[in-house]
Amino acid sequence: MVVTCLPDSAVVESVVRDEDGIVDGLSEGMTLIDMSTISPTVTEQLAADLGKLGVNMLDAPISGGEEGAIEGTLSIMVGGDEAVLEDHRDLFEVMGETITHTGPNGAGQTTKACNQIVVAAQMVAVSEALVFAEKAGADLEAVVEAISGGAAGCWTLDNRAPRMIRGNFEPGFFAGYQYKDLRIATNAGEAYGAPMPATELAHELYKSMEQNGMERDDNSGVMQVIEMLAGTEARID
């Protein structure tokens, strides 16, 4: 098997297809497991072309951030032949805690796009809430504690909000990658005719991060764009 985890569709295609690329070393019966987050349509074409060589492909994008990678607790969304997934389940279980077969090739990437839509919405909503709390003079730590335990509870509040209010945007997942993933989602939404009003807004906010040199900040750093719009910073000492 060969496992790849690369930044975008163009890089995956280059690494697989270019002269002396992966395809030159593959033979019938081997499996390419691509854990990148790329376009579902690019994945489908790669899988079809590899299939002509007798090579299996699984698209298996991941979620869970740096913490999940370190701890082996990633969520892995797998597209491709379910029997091929079962043949490699032992490998996936080393890296992830939740391994879900989502359908044929490309379905893993579609599922990851859904994941990134929700992640971005969380990041933007938590950012708005914290900046609003700051403008209203509320205790930011108390706000985070209070709303984390109710209906608003989410991964971002638990894992990022305590860092956000301290101005810590050291990357677990680059904002530039979040922007790239949202482009994949919005392009796919256009292709499939799926309305994405909230995702389009998040896309523009992450574009602003890219244009302001924040692309290497954590994706929770989108709060800085909201802060610039508000003319304040939501911070504690």
List its traits:
single chain; 237 residues; mainly alpha; Rossmann fold; N-(1-d-carboxylethyl)-l-norvaline Dehydrogenase, domain 2; 2 domains; three-stranded parallel β-sheet; three-stranded mixed β-sheet; 12 helices; 6 strands; 54% helix; elongated
Biggest pleated sheet? 3 strands, parallel
Separation, N- and C-terminal Cα atoms: 50 Å
Quaternary structure state of the chains depicted: single chain
Looking at the structure, the CATH topology of the largest domain is N-(1-d-carboxylethyl)-l-norvaline Dehydrogenase, domain 2
Number of helices: 12
Strand order of the largest sheet: 1-2-3
Could you name the ranges where pLDDT drops below 50 across 5 or more consecutive residues? none
Count of individual beta strands? 6
Name given to the CATH homologous superfamily of the largest domain: N-(1-d-carboxylethyl)-l-norvaline Dehydrogenase, domain 2
Which overall shape is indicated by the principal axes computed on the Cα atoms? elongated
Q: Provide the succession of SSEs.
A: EHEHEEHEHHEHHHHHHH
Helical residues, percent: 40-55%
